[in-house]
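Record type: monomer structure entry
Structure origin: computed from sequence
Chain ID: A
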Amino acid sequence: MPTGKELDLKQNSSICVWKPLNMLTCILKGISLIHKYDEGNDVDFDIGLYFYEKLNKFMEENKEWVTEEYAISQPEMLTAIVRKKELKDKVDVNFDGRVSFLEYLLYQYRDVASPADFTRRAMTAPNEHPEVRKARLALEAVNDANSR
């Protein structure tokens, strides 16, 4: 039987990653007052690297989450040089030098979620969210530039 903490974390798994990511952004940008934090949907590349480092450290310190049940969500331990290359080549899908939460999720769950499939489904959705539209147009611009 899971404890209240475990149950809450399971129900809000995306919050468990997103909140620490926002806190890291505040720390690294020297923001101490929450009203001065301008929340967005992506972080600087260096903060993305630091986030993966902290996520791996969290998993090392909290072995109760290192189970087969959560295997797909476990970050892979990589050296800093390999992680940087991985972020540039595989995570930052729109090549803007930033890491969005959606890019993180698509990378982390790449075995079950394809960025191409996600884009195709998002493009056929009847009511496209403004952020999805912005990302789609940026991806189209990159694809157009690469095809020339």
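Annotation 1: The helical segments are 4-11, 13-28, 45-61, 80-91, 101-108, 115-123, 130-147.
Annotation 2: Confidence is low (pLDDT under 50) at residues 1-15.
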